[in-house]
Amino acid sequence: MLKVESIDVAYGEIRALKSVGLEVGRGEIVTLLGNNGAGKTTTLKTISGLLHPTQGSITLEDESLVGVPPHAIVARGVAHVPEGRRIFNRLSVRENLMMGAYLRSDGKITADLDRVFALFPRLAERIAQVAGTLSGGEQQMLAIGRALMASPRLLLLDEPSMGLAPVLVEQIFDTITDINRQGMTILLVEQNAAMALSIAHRGYVLETGSIALAGTSTELSDNADVRRAYLGE
Q: Is residue 225 part of a domain?
């Protein structure tokens, strides 16, 4: 579904990504692991059009995304849940969710809103509440729900567990698994490597802007270097 080939991305003179390549098949959860500064967020931002590669290609079902504006990439079926959630703090829960559907004109928006509330009942309970007053876990639910309102084919998730209590982390990852079971393809960036590998089908390890390892979740979980560097063993 998604194919990234040999992309380079630079911030000024600093090469943040160096010939990065990865693939995400339809219906998969693929996780991207790495330490802070490895280039994980940069990779997602480049896929969603917020950054531009200096070389390489990015295709979604054989259509190039390079040079396509971010809003047009959303229209093509890619939704990005950014690190830090980036909700609209002064808008209500409902208004935030409807912002996710701002490009849509089809008749399924209400049905998708109901679907989000089925996934996250707490959002339904707080539909009129100002988003900035939600808890961290509720804000993460809202950020994911807003992305789903775009009716994507591919969901990019950047650090969904960041700053959450362990019980909420489990809840968020259970919901990510449910979303995938409903047919959503997911590329997941996550510092909690153990949780990410427990739900992903495959994974890649980024080190200083380059892909260092790739394999199934089982292969990566069994890899001595991964266990030492990311699983605390």
A: yes
